[in-house]
Structure formats: C-alpha cells, structure tokens
Specification:
transmembrane, membrane, transmembrane helix, 3 helices, mainly alpha
Length: 62
Amino acid sequence: MKKKKGLLLNSIASIALFFASMGAGTLYIINLSFLLLTIRGKDENYGLGKGINKIRSVLIIC
C-alpha cells in the first residue's frame, strides 16, 4: 500500500510538472521522458524519494 501511494504521488507530481512547463520546448521533452519513466517505473526501487529528487533536478535545470 505504501509503495502504491508513493507511486501515485510521484505520478501526480510528474504530471503537474509536465503541464506546468508545457510552454518551454526543451523542458517539455525532458518532462515527457520523466512522465514515461514514472509510468514504467513500477519496480521496488522506485518510490516517492526518487520522484522528489527528479523534480528537484528539473527545477535546477530551469
């Protein structure tokens, strides 16, 4: 249950980030790949922590 909740929050965060930066061309491509990774990344190592780090790294790119 905990993993599922983490994955859900991660997906919501990625989708929100994706729509927030839809105007920027390069970020659009970066976020699209992150969104696909979020949907695909259902293994045990993938959790909310990685999602937060991912978002932080994108914000640094901005």
